[in-house]
Write a structure and sequence with these properties.
Number of strands: 7
Distance between the termini: 72 Å
Shape: globular
Structural class: alpha+beta
Helix content: 25-40%
């Protein structure tokens, strides 16, 4: 009986430590996270409109100066190059629609993923199609700015 009682006491004392380091993930306060998510979706929507309208002011404001994009073909471009392509007409978009978006906020950083369906041309070449994308955002001085974008073209069904 003493062995069972002693074993029970040891188990009771060790039980709180069995889960040590295995705590559940912590989330930001729902109201702050929710407002950040809404703001990021609004920025993403504005970004889509900016590409169709070739509104470089929106891109200049929402893209960090060191923003980069990795294209689905492995190409790499900077904010300055992207703005120059829009200004010159090298990149022309007639439709830029996002869906399947997911926003994850981590304090002053966020990752937004989704699907893009676009009709566009780059330097006369049709680049229309569907893409999966990831945008990485950082909150600086109370304002969200995108610092990196990655695109992957979704293979067309045959």
């Amino acid at each position: 009986m003493k062995k069972i009682l002693a074993g029970g006491i040891v188990f009771a004392l060790l039980t709180p430590w069995l889960g040590f380091g295995q705590g559940t993930s912590q989330k930001a306060a729902p109201s702050k996270s929710s407002s950040d998510e809404k703001e990021l979706i609004k920025l993403e929507d504005g970004w889509s409109d900016a590409y169709v309208k070739a509104d470089v002011a929106v891109l200049d404001r929402n893209d960090a100066d060191d923003w980069t994009i990795t294209g689905s073909d492995g190409s790499f471009s900077t904010k300055a190059q992207e703005i120059a392509d829009l200004k010159s007409g090298d990149f022309k978009t007639t439709s830029f629609v996002h869906d399947e978006r997911k926003v994850r906020v981590y304090g002053n950083a966020a990752v937004v993923t989704g699907r893009l369906t676009m009709k566009a041309q780059y330097k006369g070449k049709d680049v229309s199609g569907q893409y999966r994308w990831t945008n990485t955002w950082v909150k600086r001085s109370g304002h969200w700015q995108c610092v990196a974008t990655h695109l992957s073209k979704i293979a067309e069904e045959k």
